[in-house]
Amino acid sequence: MRTQPTAPLYPIFISLSGIRCLVVGLGQVGQRKLSGLLACDPASVLVLDLAEPMAEAAALLNDSRVCFERRSCTQADLQGCALVFAATGSAAENSRIAALCAEAGILCNSASNPEEGCFQVPAIARRTPLAAALSTGGASPALARRWKGELEHWLEPRARMAALMGRLRPLVLALGEDTGQNTRLFRKLADSSLQQWLEENDLENCRRCLQAELPPALHADIAELLHDLP
Fold first, then answer.
1. Of the residues 16, 20, 88, 141, which has the fewest C-beta atoms closer than 10 A?
2. Same-domain check for residues 24 and 112
């Protein structure tokens, strides 16, 4: 049977700084959602569940940003929340919460039926400072988990290059040069062999490249730029 194609999902990376979140349901799914939120430093997370928390959730609930209450979710709980996760074991309850969020214009993820919410949580591969998000649009979470591992392997040798460019960028911008000149410099470094040399830990060639490409005012910073990269 042919199904009507759905619109593509809009990818976004969002800062949780100062954001209040709500997680309803503290089973295995809810714990994963809560853990993912706490890793991104939200202002606070209200966690609701009718059942007594499982022992493995203790570390999450001991976080000072978490407030746990043993009760069902009410419309008042949504006030001030930017993100809501309906992760109970009841599809009907998740639907009810998703409907409340839709009425209030609040972003909601429904664990039992993603289409009832307005966003899905992608598989995230992290190698600081890099993060890559992957979604199959709900077609196959199993494949998303597999490809997440492949992405992590792909990101690992590139993390050092990203860290170096992250250190360098503010120093270059602080010189106050023309935007076009800065753009040309960043693109030239991105297209250079720096990434390969960093992967091979060939710091001597890295130093030579930076010495040749960077403005003289930054030459004294090269040693610090290359020090202790991840």
1. 141
2. yes
